[in-house]
Design goal:
The protein is an alpha/beta fold. It has one domain: Alpha-Beta Barrel (TIM Barrel). It is built from 10 helices and 13 strands. It has helices at 13-25, 51-61, 79-93, 107-113, 120-139, 178-185, 195-212, 233-242, 253-266, 281-295; strands at residues 2-6, 30-33, 66-69, 72-73, 99-102, 142-146, 151-156, 168-171, 188-192, 220-224, 226-229, 248-251, 270-274. It is globular and about 60 Å long.
Length: 300
């Protein structure tokens, strides 16, 4: 089982670099980064780094770990440009990039930057075409494609990625369309969720795989949930009483170990820890070190 770190995009660059080097040195397997341009909030003044330039810098500065967006908003970049970006960074990293891709959902940044938001159905159709464009560019010497949203005319992409194939991850849990697109195109899949949510979504994904003639075992699965790891029972009780807006695992080492074990037993290959709720770098190091030293070894 892999374990990965997801820092907040508001973290200053040198703090991010310090934390990324720390998690690499202490045995984590991956670093993910959100692809947004601004907060999804009324207050949009928070500093917010751009995703793919940050990934490129991490690829050059941090060895060994896998690096990718969780996940790229397809509406923000033409998929041929995105494919070129990911292939280039795959060379910078020596073959460690995962191309995470989703339909896009955050309306306020589309409005702020004048990026067409489309309807949900249109965004999903564009996501499907984008997957086809990317795979064509990576899989052929020159690619032609005629779609409703995207067209290629004898398009080259050189150099090809170091990895063959460069992993394509689809993010999202929409059961009718997103998981069908995942079954058709993805090497990996990611969703926020509890174990029960993951089990249900995986069953739907497996059914889509059967319908398109794909072996479900070909698609790796990853899950994201907030982590509240502490020996302070008063703190844990407060978290449990008030609840969390996103799926979360709350408890001491034994409870978190049991929770991660349940994800593994459900078929999760990678457990991703977002640092959004963990505070500053000192507190992040404390929680992440404890997790990787006291929880993760049971699953390796």
């Amino acid at each position: 089982m892999r374990f990965s770190y997801w820092p907040a995009p508001t973290m200053p660059w040198f703090d991010l670099l310090e934390m990324s080097r720390h998690v690499e040195a202490t045995g984590w397997d991956g670093i993910w980064y959100a692809d947004h341009f601004m907060p999804n909030d009324e207050d949009t003044s928070a500093p917010w780094a751009e995703c793919w330039t940050t990934i490129a810098a991490l690829a050059a500065a941090v060895p060994r770990v896998r690096i990718g967006p969780l996940v790229t908003g397809n509406t923000y970049r033409h998929p041929a440009v995105l494919a070129k970006m990911a292939a280039t960074i795959d060379h910078i990293s020596g073959g460690r990039v995962v191309l995470g891709l989703g339909a896009g959902w955050q309306e306020n940044e589309h409005l702020a930057y004048g990026i067409p938001f489309y309807t949900l159905g249109e965004r999903l159709r564009r996501l499907d075409e984008a997957c086809r464009v990317i795979k064509a560019l990576y899989g052929r010497r020159n690619a032609s494609f005629v779609g409703d949203a995207y067209q290629l005319v004898d398009a080259p992409l050189e150099p090809k990625p170091v990895q063959d194939p460069l992993p394509l991850m689809i993010g999202g849990g929409g059961e009718k369309v997103t998981l069908r697109i995942t079954a058709q195109h993805a090497d990996e899949w990611n969703v926020w969720g509890t174990v029960d949510i993951l089990k249900h979504k995986m069953a739907v994904l497996d059914a889509h795989c059967e319908n398109v003639g794909r072996d479900p075992a070909e698609i790796e699965r990853s899950a994201v949930a907030l982590l509240f790891l502490s020996d302070d029972e008063a703190f844990l009780s407060r978290i449990r009483r008030r609840g969390t807006a996103m799926p979360a695992n709350v408890g001491g080492v034994s409870e978190i170990t049991d929770a991660v074990g349940a994800y593994r037993d459900a078929g999760v290959d990678e457990y991703i820890v977002p640092a959004f709720n963990l505070g500053g770098t000192d507190r992040q190091r404390e929680v992440l070190d404890r997790f990787i030293e006291e929880v993760a070894p049971a699953f390796r």
